[in-house]
Amino acid sequence: MAKRNVTLLFANPLMKLLLRSPWHGVASNEIMLITVTGRKSGKPYTTPVNYVRDGEVLSVLTHSHRTWWRNLRGGAPVTIVLRGKTIQTMGTAYEKADDVVDLFLQHLQGAPKYAAIFSVTVDSEGRPIRASAEAAAAGKVMVEIELPES
Questions:
Q1: Distance of CA 64 to the CA centre of its chain
Q2: Contact call for residues 73 and 80 (beta carbons, < 8 A)
Q3: Total structural domains in the chain?
Q4: pLDDT in tens, 92-128
Q5: Per residue in 125-143, pLDDT tens?
Q6: What is the rounded CA–CA span in Å between residue 142 and residue 121?
């Protein structure tokens, strides 16, 4: 069985259960649930995603071959489960290479540990090197989710 199928069959459903449970704190500092509505089907799709928070904006890096983010082209309503709270808000997908790299660099500044995970080279001060981030961001999409004011 391919890795992707194992994730879809086991890991994602288990993560959905965990993030909706009282024990969400085990994972919810880095993983949230996002629900998008299919533009053609009208069907809701929920998936767990890693996120980085920068003030009132959450950023999500995802592979372009995944499909959930396509419903956020041009901006669209989303529902997220963030640290045990269900929030109705807006999300926007960014596909243009320059936009993705710029947002990815911000993403890395918010969570420097992801530089190593994505094999992004950093300079002597720990800042990601743009050319390295460009290579790591190839085939990826950035999604930004606005948090409503509390």
A1: 12
A2: no
A3: 1
A4: 999 999 999 999 999 898 888 899 999 999 999 989 9
A5: 989 999 999 999 999 999 9
A6: 19
Rounded Cα distance between 125 and 77, Å, is 38
Range of the domain at 90: 3-146
pLDDT in tens, 47-61: 999 999 999 999 999
Residue 72 belongs to domain with CATH number: 2.30.110.10
Conformational region of residue 118, where left means phi above 0, alpha means psi within -120 to 50, and beta covers everything else: alpha
DSSP 8-state code for residue 127:
P
Please write the tens of the pLDDT for every residue from 6-33. Answer: 556 678 888 887 788 877 877 778 999 9
Give the pair of three-digit tokens for residue 54: 């920068």
Which two structure tokens, joined as six digits, stand for 27? 């994972």
**Residue whose C-alpha is closest to residue 61's, from 121, 128, 145, 131:** 145
Of 57, 56, 60, 91, nearest to 75 by C-alpha is 91
